[in-house]
Amino acid sequence: MWVTLLKYAKKNLVCLGLAAALLSTEAHAAEWKPDASPRPHHAEARVTDVKVLDNRMRDLMVSSPAMGMSIPVRVILPAHWREKPESTFPVVYMFHGGDDDYTSWTRETDVEALAKDSDVLVVMPDAGRNGYYSDWFAGAPRWETFHTRELVRLMEENFRASHSRAVVGLSMGGFGALNYAAHNRGMFRYVASMSSYVDLNDPTVRLELALGTGKEGIDIKDVWGDPVKNDEVWQAHTPAAMPRAFRGMHVHLSAGSGQPGPLDTGRPSDVVLVSVLGEAPLPGQIARFARSLRSEGVDVTTHLYTPGTHSWPYWQAELHSIWPSVMKSIGE
Fold this sequence. Notes:
This protein is of the alpha/beta class. The chain is 36% helix and 19% strand.
């Protein structure tokens, strides 16, 4: 059955509406800002509610001036949080994919068990179902400001986060992780991007974005402006266009071949087909990006695996694979 699905997917790869549904699912860049005159924020972001989920996991509501609304954030406290009240702790930020939310990592993976013995703060913020981890050209929403300014400060002030940080993201979240790392050099020691598009100049990616945003009633010009008139904005959100910005950090890139395998067993065939279409275009652009990173002297590792579809079983396996390296990078 999988061979038939794969042949069908390859023949119909141009029909990227399915892939867009999942991917939206799921150089001067450092200086560029979407607003010529950013709105001043007289108020600061603050935690307005804390819900205790278990011994170490909390759900926060964060009132964000940048977003003009409250945003949920899930955190896993360090193993010795209570025993070391004067200590600060390294942080792992984890970003979800499109058409998902801040609960996805703990809902779909065993990250809480994985971090059971680690003195690390795990922070999983919401990013909107189709927020693209960007301060939108239209002026709002301002996801990047929330995640990299307001939330980072709150974690340091309220949860004793140190300046030792890593960021892990998948699909749209992997795209966000790469852009945040490039735009804020020195913020992260380690960045991992799983199954993410990295090149907004790729015609396939542009088609997927057009189809995905259209399905959600979003004008892509609101996100990064007009692709032609505002090309500098698009390039400032294209990881592949700014490889030099990743110097000084470790970059890990991974993606599957798009071929279904044992981890897809038992899943509905239509769901597997979407996962195939979502993953198949990624390895090529990721391999090219990795080569450009290496040419700039960036410390980069890749894991391009077969089989592998755009789905959680593969991301769960990848998380386990990279976790020791993530911990080592932040000194845990």
